[in-house]
């Protein structure tokens, strides 16, 4: 009798677990490329996404996290294994079928058309019609109701290109929630690095939404490199390394809250940089970069007003501020992508105010753009070509150096791959085919390479470690400080205050597009917060 009761209890538990599993991947394999250049992205991988759970998938760049979830969402077709959605195989394995079944994915890189309005982007592929004509009114009403319900403010009546990064991320989430079926309980939401490009306050908003969706019965998959986010918001964790699952921690496991252990699992070591503040810079050294009373404005990037700052040789200056207070405009002006309406900009003693990016680079500017896809990569080109963009003359031969030495080009990529652990080591693979973290390594490797023995005079780096794992972040930070140690200047824009403190000699705070404070790197959270939010201002804080 007891044995029968135990069997019935086990069967009931198995039935509940089966109902609870909204998406189940079993023995999934995926290989990209062929022959010697083939890369095994997924190797016999399993994953279960359950209703009511935020399931974090963590691991270093190139571990296979995004590929695995793209298989779950029908974006990538697996070579082998099985994908079940609500207990039945995902056939055909397409995004449209996955969405029809209730599985939606917010991709790491925005899938938006910048010239269309937010509403038009939400309608793409599912255009609402009435009597054969487009009719956006019902969709607009549905969006307004969902925005109110979930507290997701975003302007949908303006071109997406004019929206802030945070608004674009919220628009992506709205699109997925509008399209997946079944309300809260029948919903599977996959968030691939949703906070990588967001300020802390915006990141918290997205993660709180993930928790709310789970409470309402959705299954939420979360890919993130920020292990503090995992500890605070996740219910269970799967750790991947080099295409395989190396650990799974179910709800209630203490490891879910142990960032150090998760880092060790993902990276094979703690992966955590000690990040001690640098020694004081010599402010008597030459000024390598200066902005004097610069004004500039752009509809999408915002504006700066009366900005004056200097960077000395061997000095690292950090730019801090609440997102949307002029950092983007400052980045574009310093790079030469946005022309100032007033003021003067000097690079290594020369007036470059009206110079284009190409001319500034020739004078020693290295630029790690905050938006690598728009300004840092040509995704369709082979990675070797991208590594040498702007410096093909260094691998050229023949009369007038008119021919590219393919072997030299491949060696340049191999050297960069060794220095920054770029994977896979395939010079012919298109840059856009690499994972997000490896794309960032490609950009950093190109910009920090030594040009005929010369150190960059100024490295302009916007969010240089955003979206990369702890090991790579440490590698990039070491490379940046190495430039300063060899006499180059650095201007670093970051929303990561711990990173700014660790790297910078001085921190310049922007608020409302103007410089409101200059602080030492050892400034407290209270000092930084007051300057950023409207407390203490002025340059006396630098003293």
Please describe what this structure looks like.
The protein is an alpha/beta fold and 543 residues long. The protein has two domains: 14-32 and 41-114 and 182-267, P-loop containing nucleotide triphosphate hydrolases (Rossmann fold, 3-Layer(aba) Sandwich); 287-542, Rossmann fold (3-Layer(aba) Sandwich), CATH 3.40.50.300. The chain contains 18 helices and 24 strands. The strands form six sheets. The protein has a six-stranded mixed β-sheet with strand order 6-9-10-3-11-12, sandwiched between helices. A six-stranded mixed β-sheet has the order 18-21-22-15-23-24, sandwiched between helices. β4 (80-85) and β5 form a beta hairpin. The longest helix has 19 residues, at 2-20. The radius of gyration is 25 Å and the shape is globular. The chain starts with a helix and ends in a 10-residue tail after the last helix. The model is unreliable at 8-19, 270-275 and 536-543 (pLDDT under 50).
């Amino acid at each position: 009798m007891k044995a029968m009761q135990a069997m019935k209890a086990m069967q009931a538990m198995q039935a509940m677990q089966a109902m609870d599993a909204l998406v189940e991947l079993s023995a999934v394999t995926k290989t990209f490329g062929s022959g010697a250049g083939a890369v095994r992205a997924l190797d016999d991988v399993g994953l279960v996404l359950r209703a009511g759970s935020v399931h974090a998938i963590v691991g270093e760049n190139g571990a296979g996290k995004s590929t695995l979830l793209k298989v779950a969402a029908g974006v990538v077709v697996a070579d082998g294994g099985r994908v079940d959605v609500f207990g039945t195989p995902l056939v055909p394995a397409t995004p449209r079928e996955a969405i029809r079944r209730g599985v939606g994915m917010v991709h790491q890189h925005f899938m938006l058309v910048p010239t269309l309005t937010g509403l038009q982007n939400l309608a793409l592929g599912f255009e609402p019609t009435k009597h054969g004509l487009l009719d956006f009114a019902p969709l607009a009403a549905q969006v307004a109701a969902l925005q109110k319900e979930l507290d997701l403010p975003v302007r949908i009546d303006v071109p997406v290109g004019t929206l802030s990064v945070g608004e674009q991320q919220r628009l992506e989430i709205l699109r997925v929630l509008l399209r997946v079926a079944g309300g809260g309980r029948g919903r599977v939401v996959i968030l691939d690095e949703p906070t990588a490009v967001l300020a802390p306050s915006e990141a918290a908003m997205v993660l709180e939404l993930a928790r709310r969706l789970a409470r309402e019965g959705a299954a939420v998959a979360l890919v993130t490199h920020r292990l503090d986010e995992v500890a605070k918001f996740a219910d269970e964790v799967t750790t991947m390394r080099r295409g395989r699952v190396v650990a799974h921690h179910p709800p209630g496991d203490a490891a879910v809250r142990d960032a150090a252990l998760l880092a060790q699992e993902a990276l094979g070591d703690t992966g955590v940089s000690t990040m001690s503040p640098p020694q004081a810079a010599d402010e008597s050294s030459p000024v390598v970069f200066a902005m004097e009373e610069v004004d500039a404005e752009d509809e999408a990037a915002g504006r700066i007003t009366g900005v004056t700052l200097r960077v000395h040789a061997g000095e690292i200056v950090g730019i801090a501020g609440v997102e949307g207070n002029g950092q983007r405009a400052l980045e574009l002006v310093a790079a030469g992508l946005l022309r100032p309406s007033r003021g003067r900009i000097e690079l290594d003693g020369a007036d470059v105010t009206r110079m284009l990016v190409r001319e500034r680079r020739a004078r020693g500017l290295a630029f790690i753009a905050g938006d690598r896809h728009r300004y840092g990569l040509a995704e369709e080109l082979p990675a070797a070509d991208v590594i040498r963009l702007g410096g093909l003359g260094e691998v050229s031969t023949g009369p007038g150096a008119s021919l590219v030495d393919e072997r030299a080009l491949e060696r340049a990529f191999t050297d960069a791959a060794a220095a920054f652990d770029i994977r896979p080591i395939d010079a012919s693979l298109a840059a856009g085919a690499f994972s997000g973290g490896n794309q960032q390594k490609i950009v950093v490797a190109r910009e920090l390479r030594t040009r005929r023995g010369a150190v960059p005079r100024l490295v302009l780096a916007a969010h240089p470690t955003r979206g990369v794992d702890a090991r790579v972040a440490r590698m990039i930070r070491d490379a940046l400080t190495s430039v300063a140690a060899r006499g180059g200047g650095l201007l670093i824009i970051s929303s990561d205050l711990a990173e700014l403190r660790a790297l910078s000699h001085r921190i310049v705070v922007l608020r409302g597009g103007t410089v409101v404070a200059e602080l030492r790197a050892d400034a407290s959270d209270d000092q930084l917060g007051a300057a950023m939010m409207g407390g203490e201002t002025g340059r006396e804080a630098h003293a």
